[in-house]
Amino acid sequence: MAAAALWLVVALLAARQTAAVLALPPQRRLTDLETWFGENGVLRMGGSLYGPGDSAFTGTPFAGLALRPLTRAAEQSLGVGWTFATLLLVVALGLVTVRLLPGPLSRRATLFAAPAVLVLLVVSVPVRNTFTLGQTSILPVLLVLLAFLPGRSPRAAGLLTGVAAALQPTVLLFAALLWAAGRRRAAATTAGTFAVCSALAWAASPADSWTYWLRHAAGAGLGASPDAPANQSLHGLLLRLGLQGPLEIGLFLLAAAAVVVVGLRRAARLAADGQWLTAVAVAGCAAVVVSPTAWQHQQLWILLAAAGRVGRRRADRLVWPVAVVLVMTLHRDALLPNVAWAGVIGENAPLLAALAAACAVPFLSRADPAWRRPVPGACAPPVPGAGRVPLLRSWPRPLFRPNLVLELLLIRVGYWAYSWVRSEAPGGRELAEGHGRQILGIERALGIDIELSFNLLVARTGWLEQSMNVAYSTFHFLVPLSLLGYMYWRRPARYRWGRTTLALATLLGLIGFWAYPLAPPRLMPGLGFVDTAHGPQDLDNPDFGALTGISNQYAAMPSLHLGWALWCAVVVWRLTPALLPRLLGALYPVLTAVVIVGTANHYLLDAAGGVVVVAAGFGLRWLLLGPVAEDRAAGAAGKAREGREDREGREGRDPAEGAGGARPDGADGRADEPGAGAEARGVPGADGAGRVPAQAEPASEQEPASRPEAAPAQAPAQAPAQAQAPEPEREPEPPAGVVTAPAGGPVAGAGRKGAAGRD
């Protein structure tokens, strides 16, 4: 069922992409294809391929020679046939990619691999750009992957790779990979095929071949300016940094040589290890870096690098593939905020990903035990019972700290998605103001319409107005992020609970923005409200000056300011039993409610809506996953301790004593204080760690073994004669159901007072 749903997603995405291209106006549809085959296209006119102007061809002379026969077909059905052909190439590329995945694959992985790969391909920037422009960049990638399929003969592999290199010269790098991987016959065939194809093109169009290979240095000077942000090659980066002339060329050649050497060596090692897909991706990333120009439709190699496995811990395994997928599918503003230093990184994110894949990322070898079985982390036991709650009963409940880089990426992308959805929510002025009048009418009927009088009081009081403006713009992000940071570092299981709950509450808030667009009090005309933070707004201007260009101003219901503040209060209450932090946490949402009303940003009913979505977020998280993993681990520890004490009691020992007479309090950490061992309670013969030497056998076998007072009385007399070495301290057993791992993060101990006992 899940696999069928995934295939349905593939079909819907493909249909959407095709419809999006065909629905464009003719002047914006398949712009590169129009340049080649249009009314004044270079392939139709029969002149030089590389003439001046925007209509110049940017492919190789062999590509122009191969495309000329398609001119008549393109005239008859320009766009439709090309779009569906591109779609078929994407499907073929996805299926071949799955064939190259290193095995053995589980049945579940085999079932989901093909649709998952196709989804990633369709939503990626290179494929979307290929659809929009009408480019042919998918074909060289497909030919290379076909050449590296298992069982491919050297001759066929060389022919496929050589044709791909004739279409895209940087693919010649794969001839070096074939040679380094020991497939020298295939490498020689690749070079020969490339030479033959280029010679045919030279014979057919000698002037164009001279222009492309010599005048423009293998096409380096064709197309758009190489310093454009879309050019994600090392050459483009150096130009954007301001380097020019011989210095830039020298640095580029030196750096490119280093990348080629390192990348090919890494790719050869991966090929020898049987990871052909990752090897091809690494070599392709090196080709992207060293190419004079690497436009968006030529960056598909970077996405293939997500197949490499990185990280020995299970918590780290998803970092690399998620980062690559995000870089190759989202706009740079989604990855990093649009500020000076972050903007440079975001603008060059594909190039940095290609450099990392080619030269730095430590891909695991298949001989490494962690390649197939990454080191797991500690998890809480599953929720017992046969009820319907939680719905995701078998879902793992980790106790370890998640990977920080992955968390930061997901938080950043999640906030970008939240901002985008909020800005796209319906925001018609008349509808939003009508809802505002509804809210005011309800509050008037309830006798709680205090917003106007309180807002005017704040506006008349200078220090109060400034304080509330600072609180409104600062605490909304500072306090939740501080709590998330503390929980991540000190209470990992509680962090997962808090992060998931906050995300669910925010998602419900977005639904509210869409379902009920609402003008805040400061944007209600003619009522006298004062916008204390932004100043007077020109309500006669439909855009309200520059303010509405920043975000959707009609997203007032529910108030996530109040909702996030309430979330902070609940989190603080669960984190500590101390009175003062709990009191401050409880006052924070009250202060927030005062601020949002005083600054005319929300109504009181907005605050009530914020309470509802946060309560629903906590409830939905509990419905899906049940109790917090930290609480489950503490409960399991308590039950294990009670069971151990019951067994020891039935065996005739004091439940406070361990096997061999040693009291385990000081050994396994169940005591509340360090001095709670046997010596601290006055047990004779105990050492400083609370261990007691083993006692001699009783004088009579008929003496009841259940007389605890007899052993202490005999111990002083018998100890000199029958002294024995104290039994070594035994490691405490973990509670039943808790899985521990060396590198998985905090271990769920039976008596951690700091983590589980406080709750």
Automatic annotation (TrEMBL):
The keyword Cell membrane applies. Residues 746-759 have a biased composition (Gly residues). Keywords: Cell membrane, Membrane, Signal, Transferase, Transmembrane, Transmembrane helix. Residues 693-726, 736-745 have a biased composition (Low complexity). It is found in: Cell membrane. Residues 634-759 are annotated as: Disordered. It is a multi-pass membrane protein. Residues 1-23 form the signal peptide. Residues 437-619 form the Inositolphosphotransferase Aur1/Ipt1 domain. The chain crosses the membrane at residues 80-102, 109-127, 133-149, 156-180, 186-205, 247-264, 276-297, 470-489, 501-519, 554-576, 583-601, 607-624. It comes from the Bacteria. The keyword Membrane applies. Residues 634-656 have a biased composition (Basic and acidic residues). It holds the Pfam family PAP2_3. Belongs to the glycosyltransferase 87 family. This is DUF2029 domain-containing protein. It comes from Streptomyces zingiberis.
